[in-house]
Amino acid sequence: MKKLLISALCAVSLGHASAVMAQATWKLATGYRAESFHTQNIQQFAREVEQGTGGKLVIEVHPNNTLAKLNEISQAVQQGKAEAGETIMTSMVKDIPLAGADSIPFVVSSYKDAQRLWKLQRPGLEKHFAARGMKLLYAVPWPPQGLHSSKPVRGLADFKGTQMRTYNQTTMRIAEMLGAKPVDVAMVDVGKALADGRMDNMITSALTGVENKVWGPIKYYYEINAWFPKNVVFVSSKAFEALRPEARTAVLKAAGEAEVRGWQASQALATSATEELRANGVKIERISPELDQEIKRMGEKFSREWIRSVGNEANDIFVPYYMPQ
Ligand code: PCA
């Protein structure tokens, strides 16, 4: 009897141990603030994953560059410092040139086209992520990128020698092409850089202007709709594969829903943020047709450089993008 009891007890505790072992916590690093709509969306994704897995998988979100800096998040996941991460895709262009497809100026000018481009970009990107031991979960765009400036911008000459805030290699190259001095400033430090007089202008969303309360130093916003950069959320393949099949399915389901929700939020914020800039005294204007032509030409030069750096994979995206069946 005693023997029986002991073996029954062992079975109970073994059962318990395997349940505990099946529980996992993922640290997810992001370089954006907790209040950012991207981070809020991730928080909801985390809640849905927790519910969908019956509490077997907990995702702990570490915002604001606290676990790893924005540009180092993909390495942090590859090195196992975090199980999961979110970064802006273009932060990875050195390693994966294809990641820059969404930030070529003047290719995409609407959410609908941004969605088409994402569908074409995703398969190639997934392969590159997989080759580095990562699984891509979902991507959400920032609202369209416009030009914020402290002074009116009428022609290319108005960029010459100005301090242009950049947030990655792509925006740095654009600043160079415009004859401006690139000043690297993280999204979370834009307000301070403006207050310190370290920047005169920047190309980013109206939303990023609002989140950093740029009014005051920034007096003009030009809706040039230059590109729709995306943030991408990913996890180490090892962490993902360690999950039970049902948990994997729950993660992918929640990721699909987060993607749809994120695109809707981005689109709604695109309009409301521009209105908020206006309400705070920023003049919302259009650039002159001459400048428009000049920056479009610069966009073409940028895309030629990009295609050269990517090679054949660029065709897989842009042939169907420009010639849909
Ligand atoms: N905001 C981020 C990236 C793109 C955007 O709209 C930033 O300015 O850093």
Task: Give an overview in words.
This protein is of the alpha/beta class and 325 residues long. It folds into two domains: 24-97 and 105-142 and 228-275, D-Maltodextrin-Binding Protein, domain 2, CATH 3.40.190; 145-226 and 280-322, 3-Layer(aba) Sandwich (D-Maltodextrin-Binding Protein, domain 2). Helix content is 48%, strand content 18%. The protein has eleven helices and eleven strands. It has helices at 2-21, 37-52, 73-78, 111-131, 169-177, 190-195, 206-211, 237-241, 245-279, 289-310, 312-322; strands at residues 24-30, 57-62, 84-88, 134-141, 145-149, 163-166, 181-184, 201-205, 220-222, 230-236, 283-285. The strands form two sheets. The protein has a six-stranded mixed sheet with strand order 7-6-8-5-9-11, sandwiched between helices. A five-stranded mixed sheet has the order 2-1-3-10-4, with helices on both faces. α2 (37-52) links the parallel β1 (24-30) and β2. α2 (37-52) packs antiparallel against α9 (245-279). Bound molecules: pyroglutamic acid (PCA).
Helix content: 40-55%
Q: What is the count of β-strands?
A: 11
Number of helices in the DSSP assignment? 11
Strand order of the largest sheet: 7-6-8-5-9-11
* Chain-averaged pLDDT: 93
The low-pLDDT segments are 1-21
According to CATH, what is the topology of the largest domain?
Answer: D-Maltodextrin-Binding Protein, domain 2
Radius of gyration: 22 Å
Shape descriptor: globular
Largest sheet: 6 strands, mixed
Structural domain tally: 2
Strand content: 15-25%
